[in-house]
Amino acid sequence: MRFVETPLPGAMVIEPDRLHDERGWFARTFDAELFAAHGLDCSVVQCNASFNARRDTLRGMHYQAEPHGESKLVRCTRGAIFDVAVDLRPDSPTVARWYGVELTEQNGLAFCIPKGMAHGFQTLTDDTELAYLMGHPYVASAARGVRFDDPAFGIQWPPPHEQRIISERDASYAGFTL
To answer: Pick the catalytic residue: 63, 99, 119, 132?
Structure first.
């Protein structure tokens, strides 16, 4: 595995080393010792999956309030997404900055997002599926979000091919404030 730093401290893109043969390929997608050696939270307490039937579906920007902050390791196991993290940590030098990466079943990349960052994605294909390793269990009372189109972040989402699909909840989040 290769760990690629992003402009957001603590957020990394993980590139698997695929071993190919006549049967296909094999890759390690998580290794607690390697993650810890790169300073990443490697506790896994919950695994989640997300399926999205239609391209241009946008989910986000979600996070959990402290003391229930959650780290995430996100992989796209079918289809393709544009995955985004926004730094919401008030003491961070990159507060309110974002980083996005394309995760696809072909490239096998994973995005490690530390607690204190909001997360969201837009599907680039129909029938997209994601797998998440979570560092903290879901706590409904701590669930929060910020607007995906907040000018404070200026996220450059891929233009939708038709109309973006977004839940009423995600579309109604308030703007960002420190």
So the answer is: 132
